[in-house]
Task: structure prediction
Amino acid sequence: YGCQQNEADSEKLRGYLAQCGYAICQEAEGADVVILNTCAIREHAEQRVFGNLGALTHTKRRHPAQKIFLCGCMAGETKVSDRVRGSFPHVDGVFSTHHLWQFPEILWNVLSGKKRQFFITDEPGSIAEGIPQVRDSRRKAWVSIMYGCNNFCTYCIVPYVRGRERSRKFEDILAECRCLIENGAKEITLLGQNVNSYGKDLPEGKDFSDLLAAIAQLPGDFLIRFMTSHPKDASEKLFDTMAKYPKIAKQLHLPFQSGSSRVLKAMNRHYDRETYLQKVNYAKAVMPELVLTSDVIVGFPGETEEEFEETISLIQQVHYDSLFTFIFSPRPGTPAAKMEDPTPKEEKNRRFDRLCAVQSAISEEIHAAYVGRTLRCLVDGRDKDMLTARTEGGRLVRFKGSDGLIGGYHDLTITGATTWSLTAASVTSNQ
Result:
């Protein structure tokens, strides 16, 4: 469940399990250990988790020795751990993101017959280095550069479950990236709840732009991506650094959430519409080929029809390559959950559908302009009878080819386009 940070955490859990002698499987039936690494951003994700926990009652009844654990952002919510204690007695352990590094101890305690394990206290100062990882791909890698968030957007639960911002040491990140590249990584994605805040808590005085520049100067044929950026901390220095180094992908995910300055203030986003547009315009000026994506929330408490139209106009003005769109989901414990919300669900759904239609038309237009161009892409796998690849800007490309192309960079000539992906024909290796 959840974001790329959760995926990176799952790779660490798999690393621990592998070192403990376990083989990874995808089905709970017959598994000795089951771990649900969860997301708390939206209510729907939480309900799926509780549904799966209920289903695991039956698998554990058939396999009494099976050990079941709940971790991730949901595990950091007191109401969740209390519910698991009372309603899901078959769950052997719950541990929050702060305690992931203690998983071997938690697992050993359970296997040793000790009582159920609940490691959910907030320990914001700890960053554990050297955790083993089993990655999904040798060619692509997630690298966490920081943890937590200090922004406290009124709708967001993340600061409460992942804690305050903590940056990894500059040299530790650089060493990890160097090792990954030497072992064949072609694409490294730097992760943080707000990567632009990197280094503010460190004494060295180096920021995220400095980190990007240092990684981009490592030897090897690779590409750097990053997510997620907060607009208030996105600087001209960052955009200039992206433009300067060819190894930094000209791709930027910069969530705007609303086109209304009043709504942005109610969200506690620390910027207004004009400031956001100024930053986007500068980024596009120094990177004409920039692929720009964003997040947007429809139906925030108190959003009027006029304010929704401001969001539509911002989308039309910026011309995003794609959007991640959400209907407001109140999270208990956040200020927005207590705000008066008079807009009916049906109206929110209507606005959501209209916004999606506007963005789909823009995405189709942008993708159509790729037809006839030849783009350098990293071929990353197979989907049925087609190979899949990603452009520098992260666009999905499908084409026919042999599995020998997987894992390398190749020039793909774009022959077709849809709202969500591109198709390609001719292939020329340029590894």
In short: The longest strand covers residues 374-383. Residues 374-429 form a domain with the OB fold (Dihydrolipoamide Acetyltransferase, E2P) fold (CATH 2.40.50.140). The first helix runs from residue 4 to 19.
